[in-house]
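Notes from the 1:1 (GR / supervisor)

We went over the backlog. Supervisor wanted to see one worked example end to end before approving the batch request, so GR pasted a single chain during the call. The sequence is below; no edits were made to it. Supervisor asked that the structure be written out right there so they could see what the output format looks like.
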Amino acid sequence: MTDPKAKYRQKNRALLAYKQALRRAGPAAPPWLTPEHRAQILAIYQEAQAWTDQTGIKHSVDHLVPLMRSATASGASG
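Structure output shown during the call:
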């Protein structure tokens, strides 16, 4: 792996997944999140990545309350 960007992505998978989740959440992310809350969330993503690395089975972070509702979940019909 000689590409510096690829090396960074490989080394920081949990951090990048965390940042992507916050971007996807957009306005659904609570405005009251403190730096401590964000650190706790990042730790959860890091733990999921550690489990993935240890077991070889993909582990992901799920949400108790969905950040976005799908059209079918909101009752909209297509």
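Supervisor's comment: The CA atoms of residues 9 and 16 lie 7 Å apart.
Batch request approved.
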